[in-house]
Amino acid sequence: MTPQSIIPFGSSDWSAVVPMTIVALSALVVILADLTLPKHLRRPVVLGVAILALAIAGVVALGAWGHPVAAFGGAFVLGGFAIVFEEIVVVAAIFSLLLGSTLGREDQAGGAIALVLWSASGAMLMAGAANFMTIFLGLELLSLALYCLCGLSPRAGARESALKYLILSSTASGFLLYGMALIFGATGSVSLAAIAGPTISNALFDVGCGMFLIGLCFKLSLVPFHVWTPDVYEGAPLPVTAFMSVVTKAGTLAVLARFAYALAPLPQAHAILAPLWIVAAISMIVGNVAALAQTDIKRLLAYSGIAQLGYIVASMAGTSEQGLRYAIFYLGAYTFMNLGAFAVVALLSREREEGSRLATFAGLGYRQPVLAGAMTFFLLSLAGLPPTAGFTGKILILATDVNSGYAWLAVLLIVGTAISAYAYFKIVFAMYGRTTGAEIQRATKPASALPWVGVAICAVATLALGLYPILPSDIVPLVK
Questions:
Q1: What does each C-alpha distance from 384 to 303, 394, 413 come to in angstroms?
Q2: For a Cys-Cys bond, which of 233, 258, 397, 477 suits 315, CB 3.0-4.6 Å?
Q3: 115-131 exposure pattern, b = at least 16 Cβ within 10 A, e = fewer
Q4: At what angle do helices 297-315 and 249-263 cross, to 10 degrees?
């Protein structure tokens, strides 16, 4: 028996998964530290270990840029596309952990942070997944940890949100698995590369692709598969909500983009993907309209996220390389402006997350002008106004939609943006509008000052990306 038959994978295969391995193994270090350290040191130490591990993983992943490799027989493809999504996951996880001073009780801190790391490693696996088995493995690793994290809040709705997420996420997984099975039956392979080859049964293949896309739309919270999102966001702890708002979307978008661009050469690709663009268009309008009536900031940002994901998916209409570059840019911009808004909410909250209520923002411009200014800036970016990254991203998406022959998506994006301005400026008015004779509340001391770091970095990044958009090259998703 030759050594190659005993160990079928080489060093290049294992080196491709080093970043996610660092993140996954660091969760074990976190648990060990939580078991051995004195009670007063547990949370700060495990937070430090987790953030350091994520930073190291991000540096290691970036070091592989320009060296694409198809690892594990093409099951995981590392290239510019996967690295960009891994970096987004790492950044989002770090900023979410900066809000982690209120994540669970003191005796739950280590376990909760370990679950965040394992969930992040699942999203990183999805970033490079190039066959259905790897996709499902990453998706379940991402989701299983979140089921537990959603129920950690002492709020009454936490258990309900965790149960809703479990049931509906399992439903989405069922659609995905059934679609995968049908595609496998049509192609005889679990590899995404087989999609572009001749199919055994066109009807079987087309139905399988439709089921698979429905499952992804559930995970992305696109209308009409979005109903779970506001309730889960509201009930989950604030750091978990911030984490879910970006990381779950980044991992799923990576899978969606790789699937759609693998499908693009087929003659029936337009017919298969057309419903996806329609769902994105509906999400742009419904998400923004629903946000108008919200008085809870977490619910408002949930509906905002539905609309923002509609913009990102619409950017991929036509499956052009330019559209994918702009979609990734807008996802990066959304990461900073969205997490920045969550960091402001964290600074206004204590154990009961008072900062998520719209009433807490009343008079904030007079109580804490710097914090109110930062929140206004993030809301301007979410609304797509200059000179923010949100404005630049939407201009780029409009350009690619028109160039790809999807001008109707560009029109709906403009309409959705106009509607969203009312939802976001409702918060701005609450911060700076002042009723005659109303008493201004005193500033609330936050549970931790760490979210200030997130606010500062996110504000700088949102402005920098708006003035100088970074559009990575070499991001076409590879399948082998």
A1: 16, 7, 10
A2: 397
A3: bbbbbbbbbbbbbbbbb
A4: 20
